[in-house]
Amino acid sequence: MFLEPLSRGHRSGWIEVITGSMFSGKTEELIRRLRRTQFAHQSLVIYKPDRDTRYSVDKVMSHDENSLESIPVKKSENILEVPRDVQVVGIDEAQFFDMELPAVCEKLALSGIRVIVAGLDMDFKGRPFGPLPSLMAIAEYVTKVHAICPHCGNLATHSYRLSDETETIVLGEKDKYEPRCRVCYNMGKALDFRAMNNKKNGKDEKEN
Ligand SMILES: [Zn+2]
Question: For the domain with range 14-145, which CATH number is right: 3.40.50.300, 3.65.10.10, 3.20.20.220, 1.10.10.1100?
Answer without folding.
Answer: 3.40.50.300
